[in-house]
Amino acid sequence: MIKTDALIIGAGPTGLFTAHQLKLIGLNCEVVDNLDKIGGQCIELYPDKPIYDIPAVPECTGEELTNNLINQLKPFNIKFHLSERVDEVKKNNDIWEIKTSKGTEFSTPNIIIAGGVGSFEPRKFAPKECAKYENKSIFYSIKDKSIFNGKTVSIFGGGDSALDWAIELSKDSKVNLIHRRDEFRGAQATVDKMNELNKNGKINLFTKYQLKNVHGKDNLQNIDIEHDNKEIKNLKTDYVLGFFGLIMQLGPIANWGLNLDKKTINVDTEKFETNQKGIYAVGDICTYPGKLKLILSGFHEGALAARACFKLARPNEKYRFEFTTTSTNLLKRLGKKE
Amino acid sequence: MSKITYIEHSGETHTIDVANGLTVMEGAVQNNIPGIDADCGGSMACATCHVYVKEEWFNKLPKKEDGEEDMLDMAFEPKKNSRLSCQIIVSDQLDGLVVNLPEKQV
User: Fold this and answer.
1) Among partner residues B39, B45, B48, which is closest to A46 by beta-carbon distance?
2) What is the DSSP letter of A147?
3) Which end of chain A is more exposed for a tag (fewer CB within 10 A), N or C?
4) Rounded average pLDDT over B24-41
């Protein structure tokens, strides 16, 4: 069990700056995120899109913003637990006990939820029968590509993941690539390569088709795909792969006894505390009268929640407000003074 | 103000007045119309405000930007008349617009 002053759920911009604020005032913290990388929506949804409303930063991309926030955390030693989702939250006296999907356990007086719109999960196929074959014949990510050797694999999607896997698997498998339109949004070089493999008969390309239905017994045997003009084709296939990107789902947060408003969590505007003592919500996932879903609002909310954590983590000490320009304490923590 | 009609997958129909300048997505969210999630808040990054636009209206809408078609690849059961409602800005020309909502927004 890892003991910490505060656990942050979510490594997006708000979670990162909240970690900065906690460390600055002398608290330790750890960060958990379900994605395999730091940055949250900024890195997953819009790494290349410019953002124009970060104070004092006229223009930066989601990726640049993330890198700058990571740089700002350099003076501090913060442990990130990536590819882990917080599944269980239980109270033991005044201490919260947390367990992740990988079995990591934390004990802390403070949990700060900086979870955006929840955790990222793969988007799945529409036909209901698909659930039956999930993780047997139907996959949304690939862990061991050797299982596809010598088999027929039908890949759905038009982005880089679908194209990259179609090209890679065409070496040792029979590959069908199915996409809902003629244009692909993957990198041009990858699209060219796929078209060449299609010409050479290494990849069977079906555009303007979508998955209509799946058939089989224990394992998948064949699928129906439907053209825009309603024509249906039946394809024999051993495996189906879907690459439709990720969607955000509130997930287990819904079960922690918090006061929810649709997909957001009600908080006060002094501590950004939820209806549960010691659980705070900051950034896009929190709501209060006048809430703006802007990154700058998340920074403010995180700074205040961090101060609120101090009371529960250091009940016998008094928090004193200090400036980084003048405080010897803060400058020491930032590594700017011996 | 323009009248916008949202038809849920179940057939339930909501006709509301939406101020010109708001998006069709915002009109739904501000009026608690179920079936439009708008997870990303209108930044064309999530495809959870997906709607089907009735034929007679589809061609009257401003054309899609590239990014919108890319996001529609990820929507639930996209069709030829699919749009992201966060990209449709309400104006007098759209008074009477009818949109159908998909079964779900995942």
Assistant:
1) B45
2) G
3) C
4) 92
The answer to whether residue A181 neighbours chain B at the CB level (below 8 Å) is yes
The model's pLDDT over A155-212, given as tens digits with 9 standing for 90+, comes to: 999 999 999 999 999 999 999 999 999 999 889 999 999 999 999 999 999 999 999 9
Is the pLDDT confidence value at B29 over 90?
Answer: yes
Residue A239 CB contacts under 8 Å (≥ 6 apart), including other chains: A137, A138, A139, A147, A148, A151, A152, A153, A154, A220
CATH homologous superfamily, domain A124-244: FAD/NAD(P)-binding domain (3.50.50.60)
Q: How far is A74 from chain B (nearest CA, A)?
A: 29
Indicate the residue type of B27: G
Structure tokens at A115: 């979870």
Tokens of A102: 């990988």
Q: What is the ipTM of this complex?
A: 0.80
User: Is it the case that residue B2 has pLDDT exceeding 90?
Assistant: yes
Per domain, the residue ranges of chain B are 2-100
Residue B57 in this model has a pLDDT that exceeds 80: yes
Record: contact B39-A124, CB cut-off 8 A:
no
Interface test with B, best of A244, A249, A284, A287 (most B CBs within 10 A): A244
State how far the alpha carbon of A29 is from the alpha carbons of A22, A82, A335, B59, in Å: 7, 14, 18, 53
Closest by CA to A115, choosing from A92, A89, A133, is A89
Q: Up-side HSE of residue A236: CA atoms within 13 Å toward CB?
A: 3
- A119-128, A144-153, A288-297, B27-36, range with the lowest pLDDT: A119-128
List the one residue out of B53, B48, B32 whose CA is nearest residue B86.
Answer: B48
Give the CATH fold of the A2-121+247-333 domain: FAD/NAD(P)-binding domain (3.50.50)
User: Using DSSP, how many helices (H) and how many strands (E) does chain A show?
Assistant: 8, 24
Task: Report chain B residues touching chain A, CB-CB < 8 A.
Answer: 37, 39-41, 43, 45-46, 48, 69-70, 73-74, 76-78, 80, 103, 106
Is CATH 3.10.20.30 the right assignment for the domain spanning B2-100?
Answer: yes
Output the pLDDT for position B54.
Answer: 87
Whether residues B73 and A248 touch (CB distance < 8 A) is answered with no
Is a pLDDT exceeding 80 seen at residue B106?
A: no
pTM over 0.95: no
Of B46, B77, B80, the CB nearest to A45: B46
